Structures are given as C-alpha cells and as structure tokens.
Amino acid sequence: MSRAFTPKVVTANALLEGDAVWLTEDNRWSRDIREAELITDEAHGDLRLLEAQARADEIAGAYLADAKAGENGPEPTHFRETFRTRGPSNYAHGKQVELSDV
Amino acid sequence: MYKYNDFDEGFVRSRVAQFRGQVERRIDGSLTEDEFKPLRLMNGLYLQLHAYMLRVAVPYGTLNSGQMRQLAYIADKWDKGYGHFTTRQNIQYNWPKLADVPDMLSALADVEMHAIQTSGNTIRNVTADHFAGAAADEIEDPRAIAELLRQWSTDHPEFQFLPRKFKIAVTGATEDRAVTKAHDIGLRMVRNDAGEPGFEVIVGGGLGRTPMVGKVLREFLPKADLLPYCEAIVSVYNLLGRRDNKYKARIKITVHENGLEKIQALVEERFASIRETFSGHDQALLKDIEAAFAPPAYVEKSTDGYEAARLANPAFRSWTDTNLSAHKADGYAIVSISIKKHGATPGDATSDQMRVMADLAEKYGHNELRISHEQNVILPHVHKSDLAAVYAALREADLATANIGLVSDIIACPGMDYCALATARSIPIAQEIATRFDELKIEHDIGQLKIKISGCINACGHHHVGHIGILGLDRAGVENYQITLGGDGTQTTSIGERAGPGFSADEIVPAIERLVTGYLDLRTNADETFLQTYRRLGMAPFKAILYPAEDKANAA
C-alpha cells in the first residue's frame, strides 16, 4: 500500500528580494502562506511544482513543503517553514515588518 | 597594509562588470537559476532562508578605517544598517536585493575589497592570526604570506572547481589564534636550527560532519618554497579528492583514505616538478608585499595616565584586564572590541558602530582594524595612554563589553534564523546563554571559557573546538541541541567529545548553566580553567551534572 500523501504547498524565494513566497491557486506568488494553495493530491502537487519551476523569471528554488489546513488557510508543519513565514528571531526584519504580494 | 596595484584594480573592476551583466540576464530571464547559481556563488552571493546574503572577503581579517566606513555605508545604503562578522573573518550582509548587488560590489571595489571566492568549491578567503603584526609572541607578521596566497589563489585556473571548498589559515606566532589545525592547510611559522623562518605545514584538518585534527605534512618548509608547495598540495587534492560524495570530498578525507605517507610522496613529487616554474617571481612579489606590511610608526609616550585611569575607574580596569593583549612594541596594547554585548547577536555590528571603530582606528590605532575568527573586531596598535579615550568612545557606542574569552564571548553561526543549510537556530541560544550568565554575575569568576554554537553539522560555529560545543539539530521536527565537551582550537587542538543525548531549546540554557556552575565546584582553584578541569577529570563528572536523573538511575 502506498504511503498517504501529506498535504503540501509550493514555496520558493522571490527572484528580486529572495523573500519566501507561496504559490496561490490563482497562480500568484504570495508572501503570506495563508493564501497558498493547499495541495492534497500527489500528482497535482508534482504538476504545480513543475509549473512553478518554469517561472524562473519570478522565483528561485521552488519546492514542495509540508503544510496543514489551518483556520485562516495553510499553516507550516515544520519549524523551518514556520521561520520562513515570519523572518529571523533576533530582529523584527523580513515578513515581520510587512506582508504584500510579489 | 597592502595596496592594490593596477592589475588588482582592473581585475576586480572587470569581475564587477561581468557580474553586473550576469545579474541583468538573470533578471530578464536569459539565465535560469541553474545557470546563474554557480555565477552568483563565485561572487559570494547566496540565496538564504529569507533573502539573499552577500559574503564579503576581509583578506586575513585586515582592513583600514576607510574600508570599515565603506562597509558601514553599504550596510546603510543596500542592507538594514548592520553587518555580520563571521568565523572566516568575512562580513555578511543578510538582506541585499539581487539588482543592488553589482552596485555593492562596485562600492567594495572603490576601497579595494571584493567578494570573490567567498563561496564555491575553491580556495576561500585566507585567514590569519587576528593579532598579526602586533602580537608579542610573533616570529613574523604572517599577513604578507596570506596576501601572497590570496593573489596566487584568486582566479587560479586549476583551482576553480575543486572537489569541495578549501580553507587555508596562517599564523606567525607561538600561540595559535588562527585554528590552523582545523584547516585544509594550516601554516604555522617556525624557525629551523639555523634560525631561518619557515613553516610547519599542516594538512587535512577540518570540522563539519567528520571533524579531524590536521596532520603535519612538513615539519619545516623554507619560506621561499611555500607557494609551489601549497600549489602541489592543492593539485594532489584536486586529482585525488573524491567527487562521488560531497560529504567525503574534503582533503581531510583524502588524507585519511590515502594515508599521510602517500599524500606526502605525491605532494613532494609534484612540488619537485613545479618548483622551478615559479622562477623566483613569487619571491620578488613577496618582497613587495612585505614592504607594504611594514610596522606602523610607533611613538614613545608615557603610560602614567593609563595606570592612573585604571586605578580611578574599576569598570575601565575590568575592561583592560579582559580585552587587552600583549603588544610587541613598548607602551602599546592590542584592543579586542567585543561584538558580543550580552543578549546581542554575536558578530553583528551596526553601521554606526562600524564608523565608531573606524574613527578610533584612525585616531588612535594607526588606521588598522582586524576581524577575528571569534567574531570580534581588533584595534591592533593602540598606545596605552590612549586607552581611556578609546574605552570611553566604545562605551558610548555600546561596544565596551568586558567579556573577551569569557562565557558570553560566544561564537555562533547564523543558524536557522538566516542559513538555508541550518537544522536549528544558534543565535537565540547564544543570546540566552549570555544574558543568563550576565544575570548571574559570575562570568569573571568562571574565567576563560569558550562556548561555540553551530546550527548544523557543517560546524560554521566551530562547536567541535569549543570548550563547550553546542550543535543544533532537527530531531523529528523539533530543535534539539547536542553538547560536546573538551574541544580546543589552539596549539593544543582537540575535538570535543559528545556528552550524551541532546537537549530541547527550553532545556539547553539551564543545562549549560548547570554545567558551568558545576565546573566551579570541580575546579581545584580559580586559576584552573574549564578546559583544564575537563582534561584532568574527563567526561564522567560533567556527564553526571548534565544528566542527573540518569546518574541516579545508574546508582540505584
């Protein structure tokens, strides 16, 4: 029996700023994971990743990250991805300062 | 200090122009990320967790006031007003925008600086004793040799695609402040029986996944043979180094798998074949470089005012006791400026602080600064009569923390707060430890103690050579911190031993507190350092302190 698929989001870094971004269902790159498309089907995830990787003039280093459904949209399940949603812990820099679309 | 000649200037400028074109082509879509990545890494540009990171070389940690001011200007104009000094004596900017990087590199070129070979599988920024040219225990200033190595290794066509990165460290002193035994090549200046200076050549040291203490490849290498000999070592590594597994690609593994004797034979053979091709040009070049590192014009002044200030001001006295080192010139001291204020990020300096340090170097320090591998900044030549003024200015700038070599003078890599490779955070752990011991007010009673923290197995925080090493790991999706004890990065190098199971982020600071306060009970007297106590007693009593429940269970 194949292993159950863990829900995912497509994430990458914005090309110009390097900021963490997530792919939305309507094909935008959002700086807010809560706007991301939560992918529950493995084949669909593979396809969305390929589509993301093809957008090389917008982002770099796209990959699928584990996520779960939260009250306001997808939430990360691993602490590394949690840090990517908010920025470093020593200064109020990065996403802690502002959230807006690419 | 060495000053760029026309060739250096032209070379660096052309690299900036070349990279500007590459960035433009990446942004307009002509280059994919796969095509662009090796090009940006050749210019020190990484893509990290939240942003790009530009790593700028500070060759052998030496810079002047103008260069430090330019680093501050870059931090203000294209970053967030601060920079992070690293264990490779570099400075990193954590928030540059891709389109701005060519301008940043151009601004660096304006002050004879660059970011070339601060990344990639090539010879990285050559590091040196941060007290070079000033230390009382020095045979010779090693910076001329380090500059020669920089010129030789920069854009060396044979060494741009080595099996892995390659790191060289040089010291000219008896006390090893450059961690030479944990480098791919460590060079320790020694004298032979005839009194001539040369090098003990150490090879195959390194930390990371497989920590190893370097082995002596040559007990004495004449100074004149250094460049062809280093070229022979890197050539042999380039051919023999493993490319099938990146975790086994460093020269330490090459030496380990092939044996020191085989490597020695191959290096000597290669050395014999290439030595003549150097034809003395390297020595002519070295003479020019050595002239550029002539000692500054020291002055003779009374130090009475210094002694009076020490008597009058206990805080100043405490700072001088902790942050000064012996200088080779009468009346002078080496000042270590702590970039480790309790609770601050180790190695981070604001642009204002950089400008203060630049001003002090210009006014009181013969215009010289150094970055130490321990993430502090050094004023190598300050007359003792100026120390009270230096201290007052540092205090004003929040830079007068008297903790060099103490428990809060922690090396910490950026960890998962910034680094894409990290498996846990380092910075908050360092901040909490420093804050905790500041609250306890026992830092000076504890004495010399080096804590080093890495956020992953790559060991950028040198945890293996920390008296107390902390390694951050990911254990089933949770940050976990493993402790090693007994590491040492000096001439008596040793790799720390793992104490036992790791601690959670909540448990690690209390564990370190338990360990250090427990040491106070174990030491024979206040002069016995943590490392000496550990070497005398071994792991057992420290393990009992760290894991009291386990100890009780074993006793039952």
UniProtKB/TrEMBL annotation, chain A:
Highest taxon, organism lineage: Bacteria
Region of interest (Disordered), ranges: 67-102
InterPro entries named among the record's database cross-references: DUF2849
Pfam hit, one: DUF2849
Name of the protein described by the UniProt record: DUF2849 domain-containing protein
UniProtKB/TrEMBL annotation, chain B:
Leader sequence segment: none
Domain Nitrite/Sulfite reductase ferredoxin-like: 52-110, 346-397
Residue span, Nitrite/sulphite reductase 4Fe-4S domain: 119-272, 409-544
Top-level taxon of origin: Bacteria
EC number(s) on file: 1.8.7.1
InterPro entries linked: NIR_SIR_4Fe-4S (IPR051329), NiRdtase/SiRdtase_haem-b_fer (IPR005117), Nit/Sulf_reduc_fer-like_dom_sf (IPR036136), NO2/SO3_Rdtase_4Fe4S_dom (IPR006067), NO2/SO3_Rdtase_4Fe4S_sf (IPR045854)
Gene3D superfamilies, sorted: Sulfite Reductase Hemoprotein, domain 1, Sulfite Reductase Hemoprotein,Domain 2
First-tier enzyme category under EC: oxidoreductase
Keyword annotations of the record: 4Fe-4S, Heme, Iron, Iron-sulfur, Metal-binding, Oxidoreductase
Pfam family, one: NIR_SIR
Molecular function GO labels: 4 iron, 4 sulfur cluster binding; heme binding; metal ion binding; sulfite reductase (ferredoxin) activity
Protein name from the UniProt record: Nitrite/sulfite reductase
Species in which this protein is naturally found: Yoonia rhodophyticola
